[in-house]
Write a structure and sequence with these properties.
By secondary structure, this protein is an all-alpha fold. It has one domain. It contains five helices and no strands. The protein is elongated.
Length: about 100
Amino acid sequence: MDIFFNSNYFKNELIPVPSALNALNELKKSYDLHVVTARHDGIAEHTKAWINTHYPGIFTHLPIDYTKYIYVLLSQVYLLIYILVIILQKRLVNQ
């Protein structure tokens, strides 16, 4: 991934999806929009700059520690799956 993140394409040539800004502006009328990404800290500033350039004022919050949010979300998902497995096992045993 570092090769890609250091490439000229990533740094200078990535373009937004056509009409994404219009769609996000419509969503922003009814919702607070947040950015969630798993990009590492080494490209956080570039990512924030790109988002602010292409989607100015759209997002309520740009996370500073990108990976922290993903790890917390994944840990909660794994915990939920673990709990569901235990519940299912108990139900199967009691049948």
